[in-house]
Specification:
alpha/beta; four-stranded antiparallel β-sheet; 16 helices; elongated
């Protein structure tokens, strides 16, 4: 089931990733797999119980649901997680499998680097995804399912993402799903001056969309189930508030609606919008649904005068605006390739010390064990002779170890390719290397994993 593996000669790292994204699965499937906040801890702990899973983290945004795991058996673990995704989506495995992608070892880590650097995002260069990946790490740590291997991968991913942003122009004039939503609305209303925009929901994406529209001269109204949050958002963006209980009244006055709530079922149904359109006498209404699960019932698009765009519809708009970033994305990909090689080199180096120690322990353990067996059968020997036999066995063991130790220590670069072979030949189990001590801590203010859809990735 796995799509790729570590290149020959490279150190092995037991990391896998499996998931769906805007590139492989429609929003109708992604919304089935979205994990809401109060289910995250339980979901992570359930994933940790699957065959072969030693560590796990879950990245859930509007555009991707990905599970990163440290696996004792990559294929068995990917099959188990794939079956779990199928169950959560209420689909047959054969139905969901074409939408799932998997990566193992080197390519799993490289995928994480690309995601964190926004090179795999709907909007290449968007800034929110790095914060979402950082929040993913924190949530897994709090659930007690994170460990040293994933910690090293994620910490290095943060550093790589920072380098991509600093060393390329990929983040110049940053765009987001919210700004793309504004561009989509321009297809219906060329000018926002004086247009009334209703923001349904008061989360992060609603905030971003409201600010973008306000900058274009729109008149903002906010509605949200929790009135206090609506008041806070309205105060920040200079809008007014409409009571959630009169959602139909708010819709009747709007020209554009930005919907991004945490609801698990559509709040803007076809039936509601049909009633609203009668009151509006067919005036154009542009509904932009940036939530996953969707806030707008798809059938609403059949109503006369109603334009509906969901997160997938925005993808084409994003593609049109990505052409001028192609060169910078190429530069970012080159950085990723360089960094994944450097990471694996460092990874192999960190395995060197534990491997040498484990090899010495194994070989000398066998040698001393055999010496003890021999001495047990030669009880008549004097203590001096027994000591001589022990010393001879010990010296023989150390001579056997001398050349392998020299080979591992002589050239650190070559040693990286030898570590995995030595571990396999001697059947060694080494301790996991500790996380990188010089890893940069997560930066504040770069976004948070959207526990509700609508946030970009």
């Amino acid at each position: 089931m796995s799509d790729s593996a570590t290149k020959p000669g490279a150190p092995k790292i037991d990391v896998v990733v499996i998931g769906v994204s805007h590139r492989t699965a429609p929003v109708a499937l992604r919304e089935k797999l979205t994990v809401v906040p109060d289910q995250l801890d339980a979901t992570l702990k359930e994933l940790k119980t699957l065959p072969g899973v030693r560590e796990v983290a879950l990245l859930s945004t509007c555009n991707r649901i990905e599970i990163y795991a440290v696996a004792s058996d990559a294929d068995a673990t990917l099959r188990a997680i794939g079956a779990d995704l199928s169950r959560r989506a209420s689909m047959l495995e054969a139905e969901i499998e074409p939408h799932i992608y998997t990566r193992v070892e080197r390519d799993a880590v490289k995928h994480l680097f690309r995601v964190a650097s926004s090179l795999d995002s709907l909007v290449v260069g968007e800034p929110q995804i790095l914060g979402q990946v950082k929040e993913t790490k924190e949530l897994a740590e709090r659930a007690g399912v994170f460990g040293n291997i994933l910690a090293q991968c994620f910490e290095r991913a943060f550093r790589v993402a920072k380098r991509v942003r600093n060393d390329t122009e990929i983040a110049r004039n940053p765009v987001s799903v919210s700004s793309i939503a504004v561009e989509y609305a321009r297809n219906v209303f060329a000018d926002f001056r004086g247009r009334r925009v209703l923001v349904v929901g008061a989360g992060k994406m609603s905030d971003l969309a409201a600010r973008a529209l306000r900058a274009h001269g729109a008149v903002l109204t906010v509605t949200n189930r929790t009135r206090a949050r609506a008041d806070e958002l309205a105060a920040r963006v200079g809008g007014d508030v409409h009571a959630w209980e009169d959602l139909a009244g708010a819709l009747a006055k709007a020209d554009v609606v930005i919907a991004s709530t945490g609801a698990q079922r559509p709040v803007l149904t076809r039936e509601l919008l049909a009633r609203v359109q009668k009151v509006r006498r067919g005036r154009l209404l542009c509904l932009i649904d940036i939530a996953v699960p969707r806030d707008v019932e798809p059938e609403a698009a059949d109503l006369e005068g109603v334009y509906v765009a969901n997160i997938d519809d925005l993808q084409q708009v994003a593609a049109d605006g990505q052409k001028n970033r192609a060169a910078e994305a190429t530069a970012g990909e080159a950085i990723i390739e360089e960094e994944i090689g450097r990471f694996l080199q460092d990874w192999g180096g960190r395995q060197l010390g534990p491997t040498v120690t484990a090899m010495r322990t194994h070989v000398l353990g066998v040698v001393h064990g055999e010496a003890d067996k021999l001495l047990a059968s030669l009880g008549h020997l004097a203590e001096k002779d027994r000591a001589a036999i022990t010393a001879a066995f010990d010296a023989a063991g150390k001579k056997v170890l001398h050349q392998p130790q020299l080979a591992l220590k002589r050239d650190p670069g070559e040693a990286v390719s030898l570590v995995a072979a030595v571990q396999k030949l001697f059947g060694l189990q080494t301790a996991e290397a500790p996380p990188e001590s010089d890893a940069a801590p997560p930066a504040a203010g770069e976004g948070a994993t959207p526990r509700r859809p609508g946030d970009p990735s």
